[in-house]
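Support request from a user on the community tier.

User writes: "When I paste my structure tokens into the form, the page sometimes reloads and wipes my input. The last time it worked, I copied everything first. Here is what I submitted, just in case something in the input itself triggers the reload:"
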């Protein structure tokens, strides 16, 4: 009777629910009604305008029908068909977990996929796991052991092919599960279209000098390490086998993984961790092309700009220094001065027995000091600074106010260069200097007439007017000494991005 009702029901989805009820009540019908319904659902998906892996037809197939089919002992389906279903399942559950929809179904995605993967494995004669329930770390260790056994004992038998399929599909599932969880642990707003109150984090390249911090969030740090290393181990397992790598690339193209922003960010994280900075730069440059998309959140833009700046600072070249400073200024300009906090910051890290890679909060408070260090290093290594260029010297003078008095020696170098000049252009940066010692030194140079400071546009004003003009500006800056130096530097870097980048160029500047 249920079959008759389903056959004559005009609604396809209502038919599906009736057939599911039939299979649930009479499991033997899975071999006939179940397989027929699976084929119809696949065809309906091909015809639908909803091209996502979470469309209603794929969802019903994966979440409701396949578990029923897999429970049947005499289903009469080839391993090849089961693997096709498993491919669809991995894509579906990955897209479900990483979608903006935070429903309970999405939160259960990985558990449901694991359960379905085990059921398909039983149908395909996979080797059973040594334990009923295993952690992700235990699972990837088991897969590595299976792969090593295959490499040692392979003899071309059918069992070898089954073992390879087990390792291949299980590695992909574990990779995507742990990579997605790692990215969500870095940023709880990774998969939603609005910001979160929870702090976001970012991995730092080892080549970029940064203070080593003590891990403050032990639970988060533990999860980051588990997810990252399990995912990277699975990725290495797939990439170190030529056939695995080729087949995974085919799946990646079919699934359009290059459009999965979170996964591309994960690959960038792996490249940064492994110090493959050229690879990381290529991935991040591709991601930067999406920054004008209306769906991009501010936090996503901050993350990409910060990554691009950090990775560029990892190279020792003029071009990379320019790009690094450019992206750092873009990153800084996306914050307000209110975002600089005096609250205690919590740090994390990726640790092995031989290395530590820092993970910092993606906050202006934590990142600004690192960028200032790299701005100064880049500027002092530039040809224009070596040639005594006014603007290069001025940038160093402004930025040296940070972490005062530890940078006092850098201002002394600049002052000596200024004294040796006939004229020095102050107008572009003097209003961002409030450090009393620096202002007193500039006043001393002016009073001794060691160098003529240019404040306004007119180089030919009479000496009295010029002196009054310079003194007035220096007094005005002195009266603002109470302003937080970080606020002044943030404002300077946000408004002088082009001037800073030009100062790192080997070409002559044209300043308005």
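"...and here is what came back when it finally went through:"
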């Amino acid at each position: 009777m249920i079959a008759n009702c389903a056959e004559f029901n005009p609604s396809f989805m209502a038919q599906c629910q009736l057939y599911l009820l039939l299979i649930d009540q009479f499991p033997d019908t899975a071999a006939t009604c179940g397989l027929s319904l699976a084929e119809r659902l696949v065809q309906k998906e091909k015809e639908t305008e909803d091209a996502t892996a979470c469309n209603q037809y794929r969802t019903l197939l994966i979440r409701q029908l396949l578990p029923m089919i897999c429970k049947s002992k005499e289903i009469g389906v080839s391993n090849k068909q089961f693997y096709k279903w498993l491919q669809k399942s991995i894509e579906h559950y990955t897209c479900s977990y990483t979608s903006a929809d935070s429903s309970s179904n999405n939160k259960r995605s990985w558990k449901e996929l694991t359960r379905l993967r085990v059921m398909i494995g039983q149908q395909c004669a996979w080797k059973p796991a040594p334990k009923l329930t295993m952690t992700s770390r235990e699972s990837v260790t088991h897969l590595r052991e299976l792969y090593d056994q295959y490499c040692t004992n392979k003899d071309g038998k059918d069992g070898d092919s089954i073992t390879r399929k087990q390792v291949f599909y299980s590695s992909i599932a574990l990779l995507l599960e742990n990579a997605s969880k790692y990215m969500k642990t870095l940023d709880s707003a990774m998969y939603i279209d609005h910001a979160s109150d929870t702090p976001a984090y970012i991995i730092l390249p080892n080549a970029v000098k940064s203070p080593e911090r003590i891990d403050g969030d032990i639970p988060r740090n533990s999860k980051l390490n588990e997810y990252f290393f399990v995912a990277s181990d699975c990725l290495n397992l797939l990439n170190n086998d030529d056939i695995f790598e080729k087949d995974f690339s085919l799946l990646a193209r079919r699934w359009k993984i290059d459009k999965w922003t979170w996964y591309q960010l994960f690959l960038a994280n792996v490249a940064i961790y492994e110090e493959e900075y050229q690879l990381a730069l290529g991935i991040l440059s591709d991601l930067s092309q999406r920054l004008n998309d209306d769906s991009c959140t501010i936090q996503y833009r901050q993350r990409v700009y910060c990554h691009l700046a950090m990775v560029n600072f990892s190279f020792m070249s003029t071009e990379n220094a320019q790009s690094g400073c450019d992206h750092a200024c873009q990153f800084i300009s996306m914050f307000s001065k209110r975002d600089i906090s005096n609250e205690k910051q919590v740090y994390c890290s990726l640790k092995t027995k031989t290395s530590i890679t820092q993970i910092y909060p993606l906050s202006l408070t934590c990142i600004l000091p690192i960028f200032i260090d790299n701005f100064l290093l880049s500027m002092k290594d530039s040809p224009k600074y070596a040639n005594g260029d006014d603007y290069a010297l001025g940038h160093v003078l402004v930025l040296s106010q940070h972490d005062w008095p530890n940078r006092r020696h850098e201002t002394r170098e600049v002052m000596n260069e200024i004294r040796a000049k006939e004229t020095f252009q102050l107008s572009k940066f003097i209003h961002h200097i409030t450090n009393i010692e620096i202002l007193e030194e500039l006043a001393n140079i002016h009073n001794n007439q060691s160098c003529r400071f240019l404040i306004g546009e007119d180089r030919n004003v009479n000496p009295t007017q010029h002196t009054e003009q310079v003194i007035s500006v220096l007094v005005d800056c002195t009266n603002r000494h109470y302003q937080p130096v970080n606020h002044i530097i943030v404002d300077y870097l946000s408004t002088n991005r082009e001037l800073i980048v030009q100062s790192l160029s080997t070409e002559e500047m044209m300043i308005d």
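Agent notes: The reload is a front-end session timeout and is unrelated to the input. The chain has a mean pLDDT of 89. The beta strands are 201-203, 348-351, 356-361, 423-425, 452-454. Escalated to web team.
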